[in-house]
Amino acid sequence: MRRWVITTVLLAATLAGPGCAMVKGTSTAMLMRADHLAEQGDYSAAVVAYDEFLTRHADDASAPRALASRDHAAAIVTARAELERLRDEVLRLREEVARRDGDLTRMRHELTVRQADLERLRANLERLKEIDLKLERTRR
After folding, report:
1. Other beta carbons within 10 Å of 72
2. Any idea where the domains of the chain sit in the sequence?
């Protein structure tokens, strides 16, 4: 009987041992894959991999580190998205400034033309005043 108990315990340990090691190996492999993705700069995929690890192995001893790594990767993804949005906004604003500079140049030219017209009209008005004064003097 004692032999049977020892055999059963050894058999259970043998069967459970690889299974436990396989689960641990799977969790380690998952975490290593997520870390590798982060190291390679694929932060979006790393966030997904960390989330998958945390979903499947929430009680793992590495879960707190995985959560911190996931949060850092997510922060990088968010920062990159914000950076891209800001780059697009800067590009749009530069285009708007260029358009407005063009408008300003056109309006300055138009102002110069209008000022020249104004000076010409003032000169013509002065000539008309002189002509009017001459006509008035000749009538008297």
Report:
1. 15
2. 2-139
